[in-house]
């Protein structure tokens, strides 16, 4: 929690609840999913508060936004480099921790510097394979 204070993020009970939800749910929730759960504990909290809190965390680099789900923005508290697999039936997103050694050394435009890569895999999760 020191990390957030150092970044100048005031940790209100609502924000703590949002962070804890993200920490405990590795399912890459959307803002709607987070709101559904956290608003049970804080009934007066609006969806806008949840959304703005996540966006503020994103700007500070504490949360990563995933664009892999075409229906809605999904969030990842794990900002370390990793890849994702999305189920095209139920939109479950799982982490893929594997180094694919993607080399761009010979195609990099002059003056560009490679910082990383993100591979998106599509398919069906175990629940959706009949
Ligand atoms: Zn599925
Ligand atoms: Mn992830």
Total number of β-strand segments? 5
> What is the level-2 CATH architecture name of the largest domain?
Orthogonal Bundle
Total helix count? 4
Beta-strand content: 5-15%
Nearest-angstrom radius of gyration? 17 Å
Q: Uncertain spans, ≥5 residues at pLDDT below 50?
A: none
Q: Helix- and strand-based class? A: alpha+beta
CATH H-level name of the largest domain... which superfamily?
A: Winged helix-like DNA-binding domain superfamily/Winged helix DNA-binding domain
**Spatial shape:** globular
Helix content: 25-40%
Task: Give the strand line-up of the largest sheet.
Answer: 4-3-5
**Mean pLDDT over the residues:** 90
Bound molecules: zinc ion, manganese (II) ion
Q: Give the biggest beta sheet.
A: 3 strands, mixed
Under CATH, the topology of the largest domain can be stated as: Arc Repressor Mutant, subunit A
Instruction: Please give the alpha-carbon distance between the first and last residues.
Output: 43 Å
SSE diagram, text form:
Blueprint: H1 2-6, H2 13-24, H3 31-41, H4 47-59, E1 64-66, E2 74-76, E3 83-87, E4 93-96, E5 120-123
Parallel strand pairs: 3-5
Antiparallel strand pairs: 1-2, 3-4
Bound molecules: zinc ion and manganese (II) ion.
Zinc ion (ZN) binds at residues 87, 89-90, 92, 124-125, 127-128.
Task: Give an overview of the whole structure.
The chain folds into 2 domains: 75 residues, Arc Repressor Mutant, subunit A (Orthogonal Bundle); 47 residues, Dna Ligase, domain 1 (2-Layer Sandwich), CATH 3.30.1490. The mean pLDDT is 90. The protein has 4 helices and 5 strands, in the order ααααβββββ. Helices cover 32% and strands 15% of the residues. The protein has 130 residues and is α+β, with helices and mostly antiparallel strands. Bound molecules: zinc ion (ZN) and manganese (II) ion. Manganese (II) ion binds next to loops.
